[in-house]
């Protein structure tokens, strides 16, 4: 977790404690001056209300405007909403990625239930109490939009009659040689299964073995060290085997075997080895036995930054990708994700092969743990951006129903996404289903089955013919 997100979470918890303290004072005064017997009922109702309507981690005000700076030269077209139909002035026929910027305001029911917008047959959800500029994803609906037949209707919210369409044109990156940098097993599937399952040629490089937080495996009678080692073996296997479901052969998958949540520390001291926090292991070679190529880190097995960068440079030279898919260094706050892209950028500088384009993805956010909001299967609106990002282009390919199902099955094969959520989370979901109308998919109980299996995948496009921010936070 990044320092910024830690600060946001700390502030969120502080405010929650103050609210709870205030409520407790009121209840005590009520008990003293009125009656004690209703207090247990009040406490129960307060807890239920919290779980239904106030449990989301939303680290910004719903009335804040999102802020996006599109790449220079991005075509923009005025749009009018007339009788629930979008009317665009101008010709955007060459663009495949379409983003509609407009102002949305929830009504009072939109503070209790999730407000959303129907765009044709697609649905994109927003924050409760939304009141500001938002960016909806119209990609895949260009034909209906150009014909003036694309409907747009707000539910539990009102939408402005005037809007702006940002129309972005990209090549089909799925027809170029791809490399996907995955900090952990499952990151490639979460971000880009739809893309890589139809790609002409793709390689997947997984940086860590995913051994930490192995408490569930202790139920098998293992101690903490044994559980972490088993989990590391399983997730390393996932990184090599699951891509075959999407058509990627094992000889195009590489597991580097570094240790979770150690990449940032490695970057600070490049020559020092950083062993696993939980498994007791310190030699990365054990997880590399099935790799299709020899790597520099195979010589000494040290889990250090120097080896990581050299491994990535060798992978670039071996697979010669034209496009590399990697975490967004400014948007995705996970420390391993930030460090992964930093290592990639350093590897590009020393490699004999230089790709042309980065496609950046975000599997986590600073500000909103529910994004993409709303039920599985629908589109991905652009994420919250209260602090502006670099002015990148966007590419948002569409996924058909069959691909979405295959993506859900690929996630179901990942050991880290299996099993039931904790009891507290299951109770919260039950309360939200009954009182707030939220729904979760039947394909899996982990939150990523809702967030990742969508009508779109979303990438920020950053050419490598200009400087790239490696975000050394």
UniProtKB/TrEMBL annotation:
Domain of life: Bacteria
Ranges for region Disordered: 272-296
Annotated InterPro entries: GlcNAc_PI_deacetylase-related (IPR003737), LmbE-like_dom_sf (IPR024078)
Gene3D superfamilies: LmbE-like
UniProt keyword annotation of Transmembrane present: yes
Alphabetical UniProt keywords: Membrane, Transmembrane, Transmembrane helix
Chain segments annotated as transmembrane: 20-39
Name the UniProt record assigns to this protein: Uncharacterized protein
Organism: Pseudomonas fluorescens
